[in-house]
Amino acid sequence: MTQPDAETADRTDPFAPWRGRFSLPEGIIYLDGNSLGALPRAVPERMARVVAEEWGRDLVTSWNKHDWIDLPGRVGDRIARLIGAAPGTVVAADSTSVNIFKLLAVALARRPGRKVILTEEDNFPTDVYIAGGLASLMGQGHEVRLAPAGGLAAAMDESVAVVLLTEVNYRTGARLDMRALTRRAHDAGALIVWDLCHSAGAMPVDLAGADADFAVGCGYKYLNGGPGAPAFAYVAPRHHDGLRQPLSGWLGHAAPFEFAAEYRPAAGVDALRTGTPPILSMSALDAALEVFDGVDLAGLKAKADALSDLFLGTVRAQIPDIVSLTPEAHELRGSQLNLRHHEAYAVMQALIARGVIGDFRQPDIMRFGFAPLYLSYFEVERAAMMLCQVIAGGEWDRPELKRRAKVV
Amino acid sequence: MTQPDAETADRTDPFAPWRGRFSLPEGIIYLDGNSLGALPRAVPERMARVVAEEWGRDLVTSWNKHDWIDLPGRVGDRIARLIGAAPGTVVAADSTSVNIFKLLAVALARRPGRKVILTEEDNFPTDVYIAGGLASLMGQGHEVRLAPAGGLAAAMDESVAVVLLTEVNYRTGARLDMRALTRRAHDAGALIVWDLCHSAGAMPVDLAGADADFAVGCGYKYLNGGPGAPAFAYVAPRHHDGLRQPLSGWLGHAAPFEFAAEYRPAAGVDALRTGTPPILSMSALDAALEVFDGVDLAGLKAKADALSDLFLGTVRAQIPDIVSLTPEAHELRGSQLNLRHHEAYAVMQALIARGVIGDFRQPDIMRFGFAPLYLSYFEVERAAMMLCQVIAGGEWDRPELKRRAKVV
């Protein structure tokens, strides 16, 4: 691997103008945009307006006047563009977990003879937990089957109703082959739900091209929608007909304001709506997504790869035996890098004390995310050098750095 | 009914100081706080701080630094005080609809031999829809049984697992007897879920005193938490042991940051948490709830009753045959008044054009909510007089007022 010259790379970086569209704290190098995206500058002004004018001044009339009622669809359409989905196939709603529940239930209902939800044993826990919660609730022999990433294709047999996979793994940064695994699932007669939490807004995703059935993802990582921003859900057009899900709340009704006795699902993805959406959080996400206007996602991923290579190369130059869990081939990974250290938590705390923010994942992983819209090559190189100093100098070896906080 | 003198009543109103804690638009009389509560003045400053400092400056470290992780419990405790619940028995999460789903599932699991969810045929639609969605999903003979308000007690037989009732009806303002119906449900061996959407923050609610099992409610009506504010869920302490619900997302786990393979529910109401909460909307709700510090809820309801009596008395003085759907006895009603008119929608539009905001409910109902924290007797009397003018003058009889908006 040859090291690009950071200064030159920054000078020719096509995403350099985007940095100014984010509000970043002085003196911090933020390598955790894969956990909580940075604040887009458009958000504070939008929030102030939504609070003071839409809520405070126009009050309940804003449901019509500012079209709050269709905000989930408008936000969905903005996200659709980033994940290879047609307009009208994505809706913003609830959390990733809740949306997984809805879509797994939809999938199971469409494969009535089959009882298995197949997922990766290393999938993000909430995916596995929610699949388990649904299977137990249905209580008719449904079960969750776990397989290692390499054994997914082999585990797809005629008992599998639906496959639930996260494209980019949260702990390793490894990226699954969406196209091949979708084809394999379909060959086995199963449906597939893709979790795009670590993909959406970080790289090109082509749901339609991969022929995916369903997808979910969160709004607060690479989409920069703010803490706990609403999540999204995608349904392929071929599944829109008769779409019905069990969290059948009033805003998923075909005509909610008729207040009819019978539930009649709305057409298409609107049937995935449940209760009244959190308009303040949803508006922040809407404003945040403006940042993506004009963004070339392939270029974005190329910059993330270059940043990641630069970081790893800089670390390896000083610590040759550092262990990375992330595949090196660009097509096999997302936009994060996961390095091992036996005191990973304390190392990360020491690094944070120096102004470099990444995060820790059980049991011994330091996770660094490279959000190319607001990171420079210079910062990434500097962060890597600081990591080396922290490790080489034993800076992490202090008791107070080893005491775990509530959220790690 | 004798009319209080509005001016005198305002002069001696113990809630007069609260008006200044809300930001209300000039020239508007807002009688729709039961649909979307007005903006508390504490909210814009808090939102600006959460966005700029907690999210923008402190980024992901805010989960610990500003204790975002326990915000749902802190907000829950603020709400607990308003609904007769002990600290640690309420959590803010998701929407009312989603929380109904969780609690009905919990209740059904605790009454395994019984298959019926009993609810009021006139309950708010989302309650009935969600019950139906859950019953269909479980598909083991579960069913939703509907009974008229007067026939609820009689419908509680040994087949009923859980009763789902809204304390104050959205269309009539009638209030059910929580204590008696809870006792009746328990006598029949059933559990009960109370929906407090039109009660919480409007009147004293005594969940513990009534021995209720579960409750839900929304944050955006009388709690003034902002459009689509997170909802809440209550679980009586006797049901905390082994509490487990099917939307078993990662933040309901006993140790979410261990990222364990097995789901192990958190203790108590934390097990009702599912995905990452919308922190911006949740923070607005938290700030809004400060308004209730020092509020005497019995006094609040007394003022609402007085406002409602004043409104109805003023209307009746000019339109003696106006039909009210709302019981007149204070103990039998909530804080809203529901009047009939064959062109209710157009009348309400004409009234809104004059600066009096109420809302319309199918098929012929004008709904006026009396939020005593920010309404004066003078305003309410004036609004009633304007309603009379609109009706008497036929001001509603214009085609453009009859064209329904998307949200009515």
Describe this structure as you would to a colleague:
By secondary structure, chain A is α/β, with parallel strands linked by helices. In chain A, 36% of the residues lie in helices and 14% in strands. The first copy, chain A, is built from 14 helices and 15 strands. The first copy, chain A, has helices at 6-11, 42-57, 62-65, 71-80, 96-110, 125-138, 152-155, 178-187, 207-210, 279-289, 297-318, 344-353, 377-392, 399-402, and strands at 22-23, 29-30, 39-40, 90-92, 116-120, 143-147, 160-166, 191-195, 214-217, 232-235, 323-324, 336-340, 356-357, 359-361, 365-369. In chain A, strands 4-10-9-8-7-5-6 form a seven-stranded mixed beta sheet, with helices on both faces. A four-stranded antiparallel beta sheet of chain A has the order 11-12-15-14. The first copy, chain A, is globular, with a radius of gyration of 22 Å. The two termini of chain A are 32 Å apart. Chains A and B meet through helix 2, helix 3, helix 5, helix 6 and helix 10 of A and helix 2, helix 3, helix 5, helix 6 and helix 10 of B.
